[in-house]
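Q: Entry one of two.
A:
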Amino acid sequence: MHLAIDPSRCVACLACVRACPTDAIALPPEARVVEIVEENCISCGECIPSCPHQAISASGAVDRALAIAEGGNGALILAPEAVVHFHPASPEQLVNACYEAGFRLVSRGVIGDELVAQQYLKLWEDPDWGTLIRSTDPVAVAAITAHYPELVPYLAPVTYPCVAEARFLRRLHGDSLPVVYAGVSAPGGTVPELDALLSFADLEQLFALREVRPETLPRTHSRVPPETRRHMSVAGGLPLEMVVSGSSRGRRLLAVRGLENVPALSRAVGHDRIDLGFVDFLSHAGALGHPAAGPKDELFRRRMLVQQYELPRSRQPVVPDHPDVQVGAAFAFGHRREQAEPAAVLTILEAIGTGPNGKAWDCRACGYPTCHRFAQAAALGRASLRQCVPWLSKRAEDASRDASTDALTGLASYRSLQQRLSHEMERSKRSGDSFAVLFIDLDRLKELNDRYGHERGNTVLRSVADEIRKTIRATDLAARYGGDEFVVLLTRTDRAGALRVADALRDRIEQSGRRLGFLAGQITASVGVAEYDPSQPNEGPLLEQADRALYLAKSAGRNTVA
């Protein structure tokens, strides 16, 4: 089964990236739509329902199946779940429709389950097996062979039910019999036994092309059907005896559902060497739980429909005890996946940075579970930093600081302050003149924002900026440092002169608060003063000196100068 992206519908919202358990969906730099990474994809279908824009679909070889149907000599293996997709058409109408479409033989998938169940029962009764993992689910097998190779030796050497049934049909009708399989979970890659794989939507399309409408056909079989009753198997190919007896016969039966449990399974078997017995592992809650089968909240409705049409069990075996059909399988390790260069991964992680606690963000907003997984994908060109929210946030902060003018107050920006400070230091060294820096912090702006709202707080910030502009000279520089902090650079000014300017600013800021209608003491500022004297030893970065002085002013009771 092949997953495809519809470029006309995809908006690169990353919902599918978040849902994919194997990092098989990429959004390369500059790309406008996502892409499927075939070497990572296991056709689990999780991306299909996750896409809110219906941009992902699963399809099979419709053209090949159509040619087989038109030839009139092919067989169709129809999975039991088909009755759900084509409801309210009955199973009899559906089988008749397949014959009308041109298939020579229609099998309901029961024979394959019975053949596989026979083999599993033999393995179940053999006490020499240790850990053995069920291998009837193509998605589960694909996940293990491609991403967890340490589990491959533990896979049961039994093929998929649909493959076993195809071998059985060819044994009866000749090796040249073309076989088509229609189901929700088909084997990936090239399967020699199956000439074409179809989803139920593909089969519906084939009916339309052949002008066949199942609901209009007789509700009784038009031909004598092959065996559709089960004897020893349950859906999926396990023996009924294993399911019913469980661990009662001295063998442990461990049911594991969901791909999210594979890492724990890998740890237990591959690392801790725990003997788990027989592991009944499925990627979903059976074929009816596969995302391609329909919405999750309709799972029990689908089960009810299948059970409604299930025939009573046959009292006699429906396949020979020793069929001349090979149902064994050997599962090969998946191809080695492309690995990212460690240096490139490290560079991307450094660009992302860490959270305030010093740990990786791992916020999952990019679609990947960890920053490291994202960095690996980005290093391979399958993702870009445009997906990373912390990186974008940092870029936004940098861009805000890089602007030459503060948008709210009209004062110089942080970048302009740094440039002017460096320039003034060089000028001071040449001329021997000192200069000073004032670090201004509004004392209670947070309380004001909480009480009156941020818009009122912005009015205060603009008013303070106006008072600073009116107080300093044209040769001086006033900048908004960030939040409620301001920095004033006073050229050719010693500490004594800077203290006078600082006190004047403190007084004007307090008066501006009253003019804005605030109570006395609500709008005040603390000011730290630092002087740069080229003749004196360096006491550290000038802004840090001013910041330390500001701390002293606040410690002295606020609304003071230090």
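Q: Entry two of two.
A:
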Amino acid sequence: MTLWKALVCCLFCCWVARAGDASFVFAGLSITPEQWNKDANFVKMERYVRQAAAMGAKVISTPEGYLEGYVGNRKRVPGLDREKYLAAGESLDGPLLGRAAALARELKIYLLIGFAERRGERMYNSAVIFSPDGSVASHYSKIHTADDEPLNTKGTEFSVAETPLGRWGTLICFDRQLPETARILTLRGAQFLLAPSWGGYGEMNDQMMRVRAYENGVWLAFVHPNRCLIIDPRGKIVAQNTGEGDQIVTATIELRDTGPIQLLRERRPELYGEIARPRK
């Protein structure tokens, strides 16, 4: 190995070590948007983002589908119309997401926004994380859409963002109900799982989220219009919303605080082939 390669390797290892020990304040915006009103929803989001940043948050997340009011679900929007839904879609380089990138840059924060993404004539249930410099740190489209989202195309790629504040995986709502999603993100290095959501919540969901954090030894944030949970790698809820109404929920994420890593070490993947095979 040349001296130059050795130096680069050393610097990279030091960066990874620092990221692994990162500590930062996370804020989940447990806020409810209006259906079909992207402009009003953005204004409301910006107000809460600025409040969260003033509270010291460096990483901030909205719920699933926040920008357009989560209108791609046929249970929430009976008689969902394809053309109207396409018109509500926002491209990754669209004007409102451009404003979101500028907001992240101004406040020097990481900002996750859930939105109905339009790519040509296809729609996706997506989440994007903007970096403090306004660039895209992560772009993920929901992989498990179930039958409630007939107009959304299923995503095909998992996403783990590499940042100076650690490695973060994104999963959206129903993704959380399949344990393989959180596990593969963890195996790809995620230390913190962000789960913007909309659908069900309650005691059963709280327990499921605690298990997802514990079984993978990661931090997890569940951000929903009516419920927000921030859970440590041991499955303890360290912060949650109280009562009803729009709220900002914050907690300090300590990535040096690891959970039951032994569980991952004891895996026997050579015996798990059936998990990855389609059901007959």
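A: Comment on entry two: The longest strand covers residues 110-119. Residues 24-258 form a domain with the Nitrilase/N-carbamoyl-D-aminoacid amidohydrolase fold (CATH 3.60.110.10).
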